[in-house]
Amino acid sequence: MSPQSGTLFQSTRSPMANLLPIASLYLLLLLLLSASSVGALQHSERPTNVTVRTGDRLTLRCAIQNPTGQAVQVQWRAPNDDMLGFVRGVVPGFPRYSIVGDQTAGEYHLSIENVTLEDDGEFECQVLPSNGAQNQLRAGALVSVVVAPTKVTLGPAYRDGGNFEVNAGIDIQIACRGEYAKPAAQLVWYKNGEQITEGIHVAQNTAENRTVTTVSTLKWSARAGDHQAIFACDAVHPGLSGRQMRTNFTLNVLYPPGAPHIRGIDSDQVLSAGEPVNLVCSVENGNPAPTVQWYRNDKKIDSTFESDVGSKETRNEYSFIADANENGALYECRASNQPDQQPQVARVQLQVNHAPKAVEIRGPSMARQGETVRLECHSKPSHPPAMIAWMIDGRPMEGNAVIVKKTVDGTGSITVSNVSFVVAADERREIGVVCQAWNPVIDSPRVSLPVAIQVLYAPDPPVIYGFDGNSVVEGQQQQLTCVARGGNPLATLQWYIGNHKVTNGTQDTVSGDTAQSVFAFTADRTHNGGQFRCEARNHALDRALKANVTMRVLFAPKSVEVTALNKLRAGHPAQLFCDVSAANPSPVVIWTRNGEPLPGQLLHNKTGPDFGWEVRDALRFVPTAADDGANFKCTARHDAWDKEVSDLIAINVQYAPSFRKPGPLTVSVLVNESFVENMTVRAKPDAVAFEWFKDNVRFRSNGASITTDGGVLYANKVRRADAGVYTLVATNEEGSSNVSINVVVQFPAIVTKITSPVTVTLGERAILQCDAEGFPNKTGMIRWERDGVVLKSKEFANRAVLEIAFASANNSGSYSCVVNNGIGKEDRAEALLMVRRSPTIERGPQFGKGAAKIGFPLVLRCRASGVPEVDFIWKRMGGRGPRLENGTGFLITTQQIDHSTFESHLMIDEMKADNFKEIYECVARNALGADKFYVKVQPVDHPDIPSNVRLINVTDTTATIEWNPGFDGGSNQTFQVHYRPVGAGARSYIDVIPSEGRTRFTIPDLRPNHEYAVQVGAKNEIGNSGYQRDALIVRTLASDGSSGTPSIQTIKEEVPVMLILLVCIVGVILLILNICLVCCLMRRHKRKKLQASKRRETPAGASNGCAKHVTIQSPTKTAPREKTEIARRVEGPRPVQMYGATGDSMYATRPESVDTNRSEMANEAVSEDDQSVRTMIEVNPNGYVEKVNSQPQGYYVEDPNYMVQYDCDPRMYAETLRQNSLQRRIAAGAYAHIPYPVSGYPYEYADGEIADYNWLLQEPPPVGDYDVGQMGPLRSLNEQLDHYQPPPTAYAQIVPHNGVGGSLQRTRFPPPPSSYEMSPSPAVGRRVPTAVVQSSGSTPYAEVRPIMNNNHHHAADSTTPGSPVLSTFAHHNGLPRTKMEYADLEGLRGDLV
């Protein structure tokens, strides 16, 4: 509650606040009393502070004591300083104020009617003595006027008592105003009667009249639960006197509906066509009530819904009958109550099984005899897809293929079935075809469609009647009839004369299965030689059937004309021509001279107009003086005509000398050949003068190769200079005549000049020029070639120019200029084009790798092409270190292959294991740039498969192929050509010796016109490369060479069925053997475990098994690196892992990389798996390494501190040694340090402890250099040692035990010097190795070499081994790990075997 809300008419100050002014007043009065007389004025009742509501009545009390009764005046001062008094009753001018009370009692109370806000403030009661004395009395009181708020309203956006609409999730702010209250009104928020205490912000504004307007802002996040909630704002104020002042509004929250639910069908329910469906979509909640609509395939189909206000559920039901169109239909129920809101959606996709309604057959409705008919049957949509069956002429027929296609609308599937059949060659009836379709999962009738295929067949060839083949005289009437029988449909007939269709004068009729056409006409010369053709057509024919007759019409020529020269000279040939116009038959021409018949010459007899014969005949003769004025007549006649036609001409003749051989003449002769040409002359008179000219210059014989004699020209071994035109001039009185002889001397063409070499820059134009001469000088005589390919060039007279617009590296090389004019042999010359370019290294398979055996030299090749000259630099890969030079284990040479190709050889003097997998970098450079290439070094391996097998030539019995060899694997490779007939036939193999670059081979003895599959493989001393996966297919020519161009294709080699079957059988057998082997090994392993457990229970010395105990001790500073687990923690001794690697980790990788494989390490030897090194230490299967006990009996007892044990089978061990199968290609030895035994140990075995041992060692050998021959297999071990007599100081006596010989036992070493201090454990002190276990790599056995060092205190610092000693150790309890009696395997590299 605020201070203004206290009880009305009570002081608003606290009791302590009221006492303070009173105490001050009393103190003042006491002072006044002490200074004044006893009769002064004083208050008997003072006014007090009050709180009052506006409109109420208020009385402020003020009373005084006047003991002396002096006259006084009393007034009140209002808060606005108005003076109220001195008259009792209503104060003049202030009707609301009155002074009341008993005046005699000194009461001057102020009564205020209808209190207003103007009365708020301090009223002061003032008492003034009337005699003007200064002792005035004053007393004031505060009047607090309480003003109730005028109204409580909401903000301008809200209507009091109204509804406010808001979306759910939206934050709203509602302001409530309590206006003009004093004191400020308290505004309290309620929701549905419950007070709201959070999210309220209050602000106040004080007016000039000191009233306060309070604004309370409520921040509220609308939720769905707030829908229809009543929010009220109450004003709490003391001026309200318990009455309520409030405003409220109802919140209408708009919120989306819940997710719709579809009932009436399950998601996986399958309907049948015709089944009723009732879909019900229900949606709960939502304000306003949602609109629930049904959509089908995204199209609205129903908007009728109903809402239940009580349950707040809105439903929309949609019913329909399922049909084929409903299959796959997507029904969606969409619910929303806001236009801009994404609707809530529930979906269901219908599955309706329906049968096809019909089928459709597509294809031809007609077919010819022998033709294949292809039909398609398309079913209407069906779900699931329909089945289709065919009936051809009432017989079921299987379709070729069935295709199922989804319809575009997804309502079903269309099934398409294809069927094809061949119409019989003699079939002439229609073929009935029926297609049936049905749905296999529903019971529905089948739909079918029958169609009839009309069979088309050709009619019989037409026949023409009415013409007997005789000639027809021009003007006669003719009638031709064409008849065609049969055919479906009947034939259509059409007449043609030549190529012109006859459109008039024909009459067509049909009778039964016969079609007929009659053509009537009048014969004239235009029909002569014309072809009358009748064509019959129908749909069964691609080309018309034809019948034709050729008519011959006889008619005479219209004219004959003789022509001749106006002037004829004797001695000159003369001709008379007779031209006869068109006639039929061809006329006979008769020449007569003065009535005497002369033979004429038929120049031509050709077809003229109207297909008649136009004849031109000539009379050729040499006129004489007697012929001058003679009559020459030409007559044309024939027996078929009734008249002759002729023409006559008279001639005038003069003549002069003439040659029998009219010129000009041409004589072609090869150089150095001879000829004679005689030019005979006739003239009248006979006197004729001859004169020769050569090239228009007078020619005289001078004894050269060409001479003349009258009209004869002689040539003897002509020269090129003798060529020319020789002219003979003959002259008589009548005149002169001449004849020319062109003597042509032919000689072979040769190259006279060629530009070479030509050097250009890359991209620059290059021009090569070739000049040649020869006769005849033919076009195309000069050509440019490169590698046998003719290049396009420009030819100018005797010159050919080859122009390369933009020279590239590929253009560099040799070009050939070839000249040939058909005389003699062709001539050629070479031109060299050099294109300046940076080097390019050839990256063939033969260059990318190099291989050689260890200890042998290796040559790496690097070939590059470039202009100018190329030099080479060799480095190791990555450019590490300086460039390789001669004399550093390498020899580098360079040679030039051709004008732009250079090859460098890097020879490694001696291959070592370190070189394998090294990569060398070859850099080829010149002034224009450089190129680099990497060559990998690897061990000798089998060669790569040859590539690019191709056909070069083929005959009827041979085929020439060529291929590119691959990498030879590091040794000489040969090739094997494998070929066999395609389909069936025996395989044949031919070995081929390789050559540099491409390899070519001709396969002989092939069969003509056969296909062969050809493959090429390579092999060397390591193995075979295999063959190409795909074979080259080559077809040979036929025997007569008429089979055409051989076909070449590449197909995949088929694997024979028998081979596949054989591989499967072998695989099954191997699988069964593996299963049996695994079972045997498992049973054997269990048996060994049982035997091992029994041996542990057996006292020391009673064991006769093969358990090996080996202690593996690593250095103290570096942990061992293990490839496999070496030991497991088990109770008792731990078994050795038979495959693993131990050793100091500092030797694990090369310094250059931590990722180097162990097979790459320089300090490790090569092994079979290229990942590990195996060191084989021979251990006697019946012997053990043991600790020497200090017991006086010298027994060898079991020590419980042995670290490792392993088991073996003596029979398997002996067989392994016998077969020598433990051989390893180990390049470097592996070592193990064996310490001295402790001094004082006996070196004898107790008889009871060695009952199963083969050999007995009775005393140790001294330290020294022992020499024993290399160990051989176990079966010959004793034989090898029979001849060996060790020095007395070298070995102890070796005797067989119980007469049994088997394996040789290692002798013990002598004790170390007495000064040697033993360490309490292997990890402390110095180890003194006395021997080295070494594998030489050439034998499957290890060797033991003593350390050659006189100072045994520091023997561990020396690893110089001596001569080999046998390596088997005798002890059956293992090697103990106490003090120094252990095997130090620190330097061991590889796997224990």
Automatic annotation (TrEMBL):
<dbReference type="InterPro" id="IPR007110">
    <property type="entry name" value="Ig-like_dom"/>
</dbReference>
<keyword id="KW-0812">Transmembrane</keyword>
<dbReference type="Pfam" id="PF00047">
    <property type="entry name" value="ig"/>
</dbReference>
<dbReference type="InterPro" id="IPR003598">
    <property type="entry name" value="Ig_sub2"/>
</dbReference>
<dbReference type="InterPro" id="IPR013151">
    <property type="entry name" value="Immunoglobulin_dom"/>
</dbReference>
<dbReference type="GO" id="GO:0050839">
    <property type="term" value="F:cell adhesion molecule binding"/>
</dbReference>
<feature type="transmembrane region" description="Helical">
    <location>
        <begin position="1057"/>
        <end position="1081"/>
    </location>
</feature>
<dbReference type="Pfam" id="PF07679">
    <property type="entry name" value="I-set"/>
</dbReference>
<feature type="domain" description="Ig-like">
    <location>
        <begin position="260"/>
        <end position="346"/>
    </location>
</feature>
<feature type="domain" description="Ig-like">
    <location>
        <begin position="557"/>
        <end position="646"/>
    </location>
</feature>
<dbReference type="Pfam" id="PF13895">
    <property type="entry name" value="Ig_2"/>
</dbReference>
<feature type="domain" description="Ig-like">
    <location>
        <begin position="839"/>
        <end position="938"/>
    </location>
</feature>
<keyword id="KW-1015">Disulfide bond</keyword>
<feature type="domain" description="Ig-like">
    <location>
        <begin position="15"/>
        <end position="127"/>
    </location>
</feature>
<keyword id="KW-1133">Transmembrane helix</keyword>
<feature type="region of interest" description="Disordered">
    <location>
        <begin position="1138"/>
        <end position="1158"/>
    </location>
</feature>
<keyword id="KW-0677">Repeat</keyword>
<feature type="region of interest" description="Disordered">
    <location>
        <begin position="1090"/>
        <end position="1123"/>
    </location>
</feature>
<feature type="domain" description="Ig-like">
    <location>
        <begin position="356"/>
        <end position="448"/>
    </location>
</feature>
<keyword id="KW-0393">Immunoglobulin domain</keyword>
<dbReference type="InterPro" id="IPR003599">
    <property type="entry name" value="Ig_sub"/>
</dbReference>
<dbReference type="GO" id="GO:0098609">
    <property type="term" value="P:cell-cell adhesion"/>
</dbReference>
<feature type="domain" description="Ig-like">
    <location>
        <begin position="461"/>
        <end position="550"/>
    </location>
</feature>
<dbReference type="InterPro" id="IPR013106">
    <property type="entry name" value="Ig_V-set"/>
</dbReference>
<dbReference type="InterPro" id="IPR051275">
    <property type="entry name" value="Cell_adhesion_signaling"/>
</dbReference>
<feature type="signal peptide">
    <location>
        <begin position="1"/>
        <end position="40"/>
    </location>
</feature>
<keyword id="KW-0472">Membrane</keyword>
<feature type="domain" description="Ig-like">
    <location>
        <begin position="748"/>
        <end position="833"/>
    </location>
</feature>
<dbReference type="InterPro" id="IPR036179">
    <property type="entry name" value="Ig-like_dom_sf"/>
</dbReference>
<protein>
    <submittedName>
        <fullName>Nephrin</fullName>
    </submittedName>
</protein>
<dbReference type="InterPro" id="IPR003961">
    <property type="entry name" value="FN3_dom"/>
</dbReference>
<dbReference type="InterPro" id="IPR013783">
    <property type="entry name" value="Ig-like_fold"/>
</dbReference>
<feature type="domain" description="Ig-like">
    <location>
        <begin position="149"/>
        <end position="250"/>
    </location>
</feature>
<dbReference type="InterPro" id="IPR013098">
    <property type="entry name" value="Ig_I-set"/>
</dbReference>
<keyword id="KW-0732">Signal</keyword>
<dbReference type="Pfam" id="PF07686">
    <property type="entry name" value="V-set"/>
</dbReference>
<dbReference type="Pfam" id="PF00041">
    <property type="entry name" value="fn3"/>
</dbReference>
<dbReference type="GO" id="GO:0005911">
    <property type="term" value="C:cell-cell junction"/>
</dbReference>
<feature type="domain" description="Fibronectin type-III">
    <location>
        <begin position="945"/>
        <end position="1039"/>
    </location>
</feature>
<dbReference type="Pfam" id="PF13927">
    <property type="entry name" value="Ig_3"/>
</dbReference>
<dbReference type="Pfam" id="PF08205">
    <property type="entry name" value="C2-set_2"/>
</dbReference>
<keyword id="KW-0325">Glycoprotein</keyword>
